[in-house]
Amino acid sequence: MRDFYVDTKFRVRYAETDAMRIVHHSSYIVWYEEGRSEFMRKIGLPYSKIEENGYFFSVVEVKAQYKRPAVYDEEVVVRTRLVEVRTRKVIFYYEVYRASDWTLLSRGKSIHVSVDENNKVTTIPEDYRELLLKYLSVVEYEL
Amino acid sequence: MRDFYVDTKFRVRYAETDAMRIVHHSSYIVWYEEGRSEFMRKIGLPYSKIEENGYFFSVVEVKAQYKRPAVYDEEVVVRTRLVEVRTRKVIFYYEVYRASDWTLLSRGKSIHVSVDENNKVTTIPEDYRELLLKYLSVVEYEL
Amino acid sequence: MRDFYVDTKFRVRYAETDAMRIVHHSSYIVWYEEGRSEFMRKIGLPYSKIEENGYFFSVVEVKAQYKRPAVYDEEVVVRTRLVEVRTRKVIFYYEVYRASDWTLLSRGKSIHVSVDENNKVTTIPEDYRELLLKYLSVVEYEL
Amino acid sequence: MRDFYVDTKFRVRYAETDAMRIVHHSSYIVWYEEGRSEFMRKIGLPYSKIEENGYFFSVVEVKAQYKRPAVYDEEVVVRTRLVEVRTRKVIFYYEVYRASDWTLLSRGKSIHVSVDENNKVTTIPEDYRELLLKYLSVVEYEL
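Output (structure tokens, whole complex):
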């Protein structure tokens, strides 16, 4: 089984917490995106470049599971994997850990379709797809 | 089949949009919560009251599907249903529509467990559960 | 003294609170914008229309004062006034009240310059400016 | 003139952008807070610790100026200084730079009062204040 992932580490912002004194569940969706951005940058295909070329990886589905809460100021790690690459679709899988003891806080995935500037579904350019396939992980994930 | 839902209408905020000129996908998670809040208020059990009594409906899972984009300034409607009520768990189901023509923009659900002030899973108080059951929808939903 | 204002009422979202159990200070900036959007819509010049015509009211300065905290689920009113209209610049002034007892929660202002699609400062179109001037308030405001 | 500052570097998140394709002005308020958090951590007085001891630096005023836009994926640096320390009040001053060429993007300040758990204004504990005074900058700032 092939496995490749990119870890992104950052601290919880105060603005990301809510009245339960923990990180609001919508913040994890933003964190997944942070992990995805870093993943793309690391494999040499920054998402900003994809957009410059007129392509967008539009989000069609997101799923998130919350295991343990994160709190203000602690460091978290988002571990991002690319788990599916099709002609028009990619799927990313995420795990969020508390950095201090590697407790799993959250698990999620996002499904994206390739669209052009008019929001029309389009084939992922061949060279992009080849590059993405090199970093595809073949792992079991429960989601 | 029994069906009960609460509709919440509001306008898209500029801050909720992103560089694709459409609403960022994380904003829908906040909108679902807005719908859930209104639902609870309408059935006479505002969530702020639940918290005052030391209970919290902690989010353990969220799923969202994105069908069409929403843009700045347009009115959207979040239609919220309660689709499952167990001793410690509830599930809400959401549909987001563009108000002008009732185009379906997004569909989602959230799973919550009842926890106490120490974040320990606990049984939903009997009177809360009875009230919730009155407003349970028995509908098919694809998610 | 001429006075004209637009009131916008909505409920505090859970996602807008923070670990102090009150609304995070950055949320008020978003609320001001909500008030400004409603103001523009009410005077017949929705901001989305201005953008369609290739103009943007770019924010160059924001100031906010926080008097009392707002909490989850309570209704707030944003009272918005246009307090200055120049050839390239407009200033809005905001007051945020708790709806239940009209306690003043926050006071703020935002300064905007008119820019075109290339982010170049430009004169506000004459017909826009004339319309805006009709709704200008001549009030003292402490900020 | 004494000067002390803490630099915090991070990348612009997609969720922080808006339909103008640039970072939304409310995001800078969150970035200032990020800078302030890092400042406190660096001087050995993490804000999370202050809260544990029952003190809060409640925000009473924020001011932000926007010079140039930031865009998705670029690195920014928040330079944070403590510019005033009184018995119950502190003022922080911020500059946000584009990391690649040190272009100034934004300038801001935030005023905080020390409150206890009941949101009552209180004197900053003597040992905290002494520590803070060591890192006070005596600089001119235009705001």
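The longest strand of chain C covers residues 104-115.
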